[in-house]
Amino acid sequence: MSLHGEKITGIRVFNIMEEGASAIEGMVNKAIKEINQEKIKIVDIQLTGDNLVIILGGEQP
Prior knowledge:
Layout: E1 8-15, H1 21-37, E2 40-47, E3 51-59
Antiparallel strand pairs: 1-3, 2-3
């Protein structure tokens, strides 16, 4: 996904190296719920070998 033209306001990083699938799913679902409650836009989610990164943008309409 291109981030061109998006206003980035922050990131959330999760170390997933030693976690199982269900633990990762629980962490990310909880974070998404919190982000949505704060009315923050999720611009992108990216994955590296060790980390999952949620890129946050401006407020949702």
